[in-house]
Design a protein that fits this description.
CATH topology of the largest domain: Jelly Rolls
Distance between the termini: 56 Å
Mean pLDDT: 77
Largest sheet: 19 strands, mixed
CATH class of the largest domain: Mainly Beta
Low-confidence stretches: 48-82, 88-132
CATH architecture of the largest domain: Sandwich
Number of domains: 3
Amino acid sequence: MDPLASRLRHLLHVYTSGTATPAERSELMELIRMPEQEALVKELIGGEMELLELTDWELEKQLPEERATQILSNILRRPAEAAIVRQLPEQRKIGRRWAWRAAAAVVILTAGLGGYRFLSGRWQERMADVRSLPHDVAPGSNKAVLTLANGTTIVLDSARSGKLAQQGGVSVIKLDSGRLAYASPVEKPDEVLYNTLTTPRGGQYQLTFPDGSRVWLDAASSIKYPTAFTGKVREVEMTGEAYFEIAKNTRMPFVVKAGGTTTTVLGTHFNINAYDDERTLITTLLEGSVKFGCGKEEKVLHPGQQAVLNAETRSFTVKDADTYQAVAWKNGQFDFDDKDLPAIMRQISRWYNIDINFQSTYDGATFGGGISRQLNLSHVLRLLDKSGVHTRLEDHKLIILP
């Protein structure tokens, strides 16, 4: 077996046995998305099913469609879900043995081979029915407005690539990839000015700071930053949600201010969710270490942890994080695992730039699963409809029906 096949076999085995690390799960999903690997993946899945002593026919017979859908929603954080599932409390007690057996035959095919595939033909027919509604809404895209220090605004999605402005000896550049970047011929420019990058609802954008650090800005978010980092700290202010990859500099910590909190790092990867309409502010650490503070209280986070601040009490706790879910938006996915309907609708509202109107009472259920953020709104609504959430779209207002 060639090295790639051997690696795929190993990754598939640790995935189905439940011992895969987040990095291994991510690597597996990237490999099986490659069209040229489809035949090999199918062959390896067949071998894994033999090890599990469960045939395709037996799996479908023992796993009714409703139960299989529930299991799909509880498989550990696959990048591309094919279902959104309502989960009342009594429906969440699904054995891990069944989940991992289902994973071998279902999840890999569903997430990796380019379509909504399932062992049941009925499921294929249902998923094939996901088509655009008459008045559909396209997903968000790269949209942002840059506000320069003198108040001048530049609409980045319509601006041409190249140099956009010159500020204090620093060039503001829109790269061919659409990302915004800053370049300076000297280490310490004579004047440090502040810019603000703002994304609308239905927009996202990437930015490279003067020191090479990068930030991904989600919809309805903003970040204020200097055109060059000087002094003892690199400090920015943000609202909404952003993912940071910070260049290491032990002499100049990087500080993010958001919603009355500070996150201090030397060089690391982390995500901050600080929307005003959310009940919590969440800082999630993926790599390195950060110091999270609110008021006089400070705590150090380690990889895989998150600080959760209660917006009302202003107190926070540190707990283990679902790191895949925290950055699913950056990777082009909605992850609705353990999210209630209002929380799901807030995400949909921001990404599709629509208003939400609840005409039904919320029953307290949470949901599982998710879907790509690259699909039109109609795809999301069809899947929610199959979970009992009925909606009507009028212009740019989504009505949640009784």
